[in-house]
Amino acid sequence: MARVLIIEDNPTNMKLAVFLLQKAAHEVLQAVDAETGLALARQHHPELILMDIQLPGMDGLTATRLLKADAATRDIKIVALTALAMNGDRENMEAAGCDGYIAKPLRYQELLALTARLTTTAQVPSESQTQRCP
Ligand code: MN
Fold first, then answer.
1. Which of 36, 54, 78, 133 has the most crowded Cβ, counting Cβ within 10 A?
2. Torsion angle of alpha carbons 4, 119, 83, 107, nearest 10°?
3. Neighbours of ion ligand 1 (CB under 5 A)
């Protein structure tokens, strides 16, 4: 079980992601825009963020860059949720600091497998991940 923050403005996608993660016994936090999501991430320090890319106001890649540039939040795993599947998108997400990528529509197996993988490795910190802000 992990604490997971979902940042997603589409109510249907949000509802589905919340349902799937809660069913797998994860603790779920929700934000419908990046600004709220950043505040929740700083306050509650989830192990994983599912980050929609297309959001009102600040987009998901910008929010990812901010989180990865901040020593207090850079160890949070971030998985991009996107309907985009064009050449270059994956590179853009990796450049922004995303740890993974899920194409919408969300699929149960893929979402839970990636969540399990990223939150399990987060419990075994590497050398670089041990330098955390108090
Ligand atoms: Mn969206």
1. 78
2. -90
3. 9, 52, 54
Name the residue type at position 119. Answer: T
Which among 97, 98, 7, 13 is positioned nearest to 57, based on CA atoms? 7
The pTM for the full model equals 0.85
- Expressed in angstroms and rounded, the spacing between residue 59 Cα and the centre of ligand 1 is 9
From 36, 31, 37, 45, select the one nearest 119 (Cα to Cα).
45
Strand order in the sheet with 100-103: 27-31, 3-7, 48-52, 77-82, 100-103
How far is the C-alpha of 77 from the C-alpha of 15, rounded, in Å?
21
For residue 83, report the distance from its CA to the centre of ligand 1, in Å.
9
pLDDT, tens digit (0-9, with 9 covering 90-100), for 90-106: 888 889 999 998 988 88
pLDDT (0 to 100) of residue 124: 46
- The domains of the chain, with CATH numbers, are 3-128 (3.40.50.2300)
